[in-house]
């Protein structure tokens, strides 16, 4: 039984310069209002927890039967736990789901310092699992969350049952130049074009080559991030694991990529990933982009559940 007592938990107070750092009080209020609106419309019963660690506080949205197997959900960069709203009802019918805000990134959690490398991210997530009373879990991660899921299976194999990666960054091949282009070149150019054209609309995800999200409340939350609401966040360059590290991972792993993925060519990446990690299962999700779980929630849920459920 994966129940836990939150009464004894003591969340440390947020330092004024904690990451992520809001630009101002108004930006913070807009962001938190959008976050709370997404949680109020959560499709099933849930509870929100704040789990302390040596880095700060991690916000978690928990759903599903208390005696069901645990399933951790890690979002894309800046996506927050609310990125899983369209998936959580289907997954929580079979699992106790823990949707997590990645520390130091947009969300309700915070860190008093940056995490320096992938080992620290694994240590952080391990402490969150300890705080939740979970010794061993399966993990589903999207984008940066997919990298973190595989990283956890590599560095703390005793704690990971199975891994599902949805369009992970890093992991099998570097996308640093494309990520840099989107974050440091394309987005500023879009902002400049809007300023010159007199448009007051902030650059959105469609400007960066991502389809409009199906979840409008999550889109509203992401719009406050794009404004942006934050002056500083914490993140690392997602590492490419060596072939030796990948082949040493014991947890069964599934890689899902949307057929409209922009960071890399889906079929080619799936072939490369299988070459580097021969036991890996892969699939391309039709009519889905980088956030395939939101683009095709029923299809992605079905693939996840088939992969996670025990086999004879």
UniProtKB/TrEMBL annotation:
Residues 1-21 are annotated as: Disordered. Gene3D superfamilies: alpha/beta hydrolase (3.40.50.1820). It holds the Pfam family Abhydrolase_6. GO terms for molecular function: hydrolase activity. Coiled coil: none annotated. Residues 71-302 form the AB hydrolase-1 domain. InterPro entries: AB_hydrolase_1, AB_hydrolase_fold. Residues 1-12 have a biased composition (Polar residues). Keywords: Hydrolase, Membrane, Transmembrane, Transmembrane helix. The chain crosses the membrane at residues 217-240. PANTHER family: ALPHA/BETA-HYDROLASES SUPERFAMILY PROTEIN. This is Alpha/beta hydrolase.
């Amino acid at each position: 039984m994966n129940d836990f007592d939150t009464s004894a938990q003591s969340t440390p107070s947020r330092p004024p310069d904690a990451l992520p750092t809001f630009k101002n009080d108004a930006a913070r209020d807009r962001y938190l209002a959008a976050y709370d609106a997404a949680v109020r419309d959560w499709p099933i019963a849930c509870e929100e927890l704040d789990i302390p660690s040596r880095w700060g506080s991690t916000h978690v949205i928990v759903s599903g039967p208390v005696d069901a197997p645990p399933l951790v959900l890690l979002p894309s960069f800046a996506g927050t736990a609310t990125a899983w709203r369209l998936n959580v009802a289907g997954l929580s019918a079979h699992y106790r789901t823990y949707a997590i805000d990645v520390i130091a990134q947009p969300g309700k959690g915070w860190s008093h310092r940056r995490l320096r490398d992938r080992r620290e991210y694994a240590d952080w997530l391990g402490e969150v699992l300890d705080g939740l009373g979970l010794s061993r879990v399966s993990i589903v991660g999207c984008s940066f969350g997919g990298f973190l899921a595989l990283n956890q299976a590599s560095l703390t194999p005793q704690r990971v049952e199975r891994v599902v990666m949805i369009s992970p960054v890093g992991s099998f091949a570097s996308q640093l130049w494309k990520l840099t282009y989107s974050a440091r070149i394309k987005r500023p150019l879009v902002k400049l074009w809007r300023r010159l054209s007199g448009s007051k609309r902030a650059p959105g995800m469609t400007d960066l080559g991502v389809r409009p999200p199906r979840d409008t409340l999550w889109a509203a939350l992401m719009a406050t991030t794009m404004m942006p609401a934050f002056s500083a966040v914490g993140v690392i360059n997602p590492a490419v694991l060596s072939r030796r590290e990948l082949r040493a991972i014991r947890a069964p792993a599934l890689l899902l990529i949307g057929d409209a993925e922009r960071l890399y060519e889906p079929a080619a990446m799936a072939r490369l990933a299988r070459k580097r990690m021969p036991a890996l299962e892969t699939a391309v999700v039709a009519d889905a982009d980088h956030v395939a779980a939101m683009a095709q929630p029923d299809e992605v849920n079905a693939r996840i559940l088939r992969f996670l459920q025990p086999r004879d």
